[in-house]
Each structure stands twice: as C-alpha cells, then as structure tokens.
Design a protein that fits this description.
By secondary structure, the protein is an alpha/beta fold. It is built from eleven helices and ten strands. The strands form two sheets. It has an eight-stranded mixed beta sheet. A two-stranded antiparallel ribbon has the order 3-4. Helix 3 runs parallel beside helix 5.
C-alpha cells in the first residue's frame, strides 16, 4: 500500500528520481514528517478548515465514526459524500504493472540525470516482500536504478533479499545511544546497528543519512558517536548526508487525528550544521555533505 508517488525528487539519491512512499513503519520518530506512513492501514485525512458542518459524512457513515473514532475503517463513504473536499483517504493499493507504468513515464529524466526510483516510506522493507521483490525485479528488467530508503529496523533477511536489485541503500542513523533511541523513536537501535554492519560486509553501496534534530541530537557528541560507530565497525559507505530537521510535516498530524509530538524541536542553524560537518571531517570521515 502506498501513500504517494513524488516526481522529480532530488533529495533521495543521485539524479532526478521518483520516490514512492509505502505505508507502514515499525518506528515512531517524534520528528516524523510523514506520519501518514506510520500505520499499515488506510486512514482518513480530515481538513477541518474546509468543513462546513453539513453532516453529510455522519449521515452516510455506517460505523458512526465520521470524526476519527476507533470505529473508522477508512471505507471512503464520507469522502464521496462530502461536498467541500474536506476528506480524503490516505493509502491505496496499486498493482505492480500500474506502478511500473507510472514510474517509466519519467525514464528520460532518469537517463539524463543518472537518477531512478527511490522506494521509501514509512519503512518499505517492512511491507509485503513478495510485492516489493516483484516490483524491484520489474524495474531491474527495465534498467531503472532503485534506491531503498530504510531505517534498518527489519529482519536482515528482508534486506538481503533486495540487495541484487538495489543500487544504493539510504540508511538512517537517528541516534547511537540505545536509551535515547527508545525515547525518541519508540525502539532500541541494536537491530539497526547490527544490520548496518552486516550490510557493509556484503559490500552494498550505502549512503548514510543523519537527521539532525534541534533539541535532540544536534550536538558534537552525536556526530562523535556516529564516527566511532562507522570507523569502529569499518562501515563502508559512499556518502554521509546531514539532514537538518524541518517541521513541514507537523500539519499532517491533525489531518489524521494525531497530536504532533515534536513541538520542542527546532531547525538547526546553518552555521551549526557546518560545525557538525567539519567535526565529522576532522574525525576522518569523508564525503560528508549537508542535505
């Protein structure tokens, strides 16, 4: 199940890419900017500012769940009934042929820029593996470069299965301290680190991505510990990207009936990002970029 197909993406790997967002994630990062991808099921988007209180949604709802109760099954009846476009279903099943056809529309841009497709989420490796493998095999047959954007919190056999069809793994390291990782994401990081080490030993092309969250990990101690992790385990990587936090996804939480848990976070200053980048270089890490 996917939530979106984003065309002309330039931040999810080399070149111009199409990024496909899959639904479902085992983590609950407090700064998540795609909260609609956390749940594995379809969900209702409700735009309160568009609602005129006509009650058409309540009249057609067979589950008495027009306003985000636990009874809502995201059937879409209220979406059809609403005359003010105040409702939308987030999450749709799409056949492999249809998805590949949509991706292939931008093949000339991939060829011209050295780009391709990035499969993201949520956590794409936690979704239907049969579907994912068939999709990747079809893209491989068509000569399309495929990147996997992952948090690494999945059984390693899932990662191993996609290696033959993956050009680059965009691998997130959110925090190195286990307790802090639990505090901010809801899970520990033991599996994530173990999988990174295993993946590196298989000579996969890895692009390390470090979300830098103001108020959580925007400090020298964090990058020191990341450097220790990478160097201490001889992790092979092609690039390290420092990704400054932004709150552009915070408005999505209300749309699906959630409360945004990241109000205390802030965007790091440009000069502070430069200092973190310089520190990683000082520690002997190469190909470190902001963004």
């Amino acid at each position: 199940m996917i939530t979106d197909i984003q065309k002309f993406s330039i931040h999810d790997g080399k070149g111009t890419r199409t990024t496909v967002f899959f639904k479902g994630c085992p983590l609950r990062c407090k700064w998540c900017h795609n909260p609609e991808t956390q749940n594995y099921k379809r969900q209702l988007y409700f735009y309160k500012d568009r609602c005129r209180g006509c009650n058409s949604c309540q009249e057609v709802c067979k589950h008495q769940a027009a306003f985000f109760t636990q009874k809502c099954v995201a059937c879409g009846e209220c979406v059809t009934a609403c005359n003010y476009s105040a409702r939308k279903i987030c999450g749709r099943d799409i056949g492999i042929d249809e998805l590949v056809s949509e991706i292939m529309k931008d093949e000339p841009f991939y060829e011209a820029s050295g780009g391709g497709v990035t499969l993201s989420g949520g956590e794409v490796l936690s979704t239907d593996m049969d579907y994912l493998l068939k999709l990747m095999q079809e893209l491989y047959k068509n000569g399309i470069s495929v990147n996997i954007d992952t948090c690494g919190y999945v059984p390693f056999d899932r990662i191993e299965k996609v290696i033959p069809y993956t050009d680059t793994f965009l691998y997130d390291i959110k925090l190195t301290d286990s307790e802090e990782h639990i505090r901010y994401t809801g899970t520990d990081n033991k599996l994530i680190i173990e999988n990174l080490i295993k993946l590196s030993k298989l000579n996969a092309n890895i692009w390390i991505r470090l979300p830098i969250i103001g108020g959580a990990n925007d400090n020298e101690g964090h990058v020191n510990s990341v450097a220790e992790l990478l160097k201490g385990n001889e992790i092979s990587y092609s690039r390290i990207s420092l990704l400054p936090y932004h709150n552009t996804g915070s408005s999505k939480y209300e749309l699906i009936g959630y409360k945004y848990p990241g109000n205390d976070f802030y965007t790091p200053k440009e000069e502070d990002m430069e200092l973190l980048k310089d520190r990683m270089t000082e520690l002997g890490l190469v190909n470190v970029y902001i963004g």
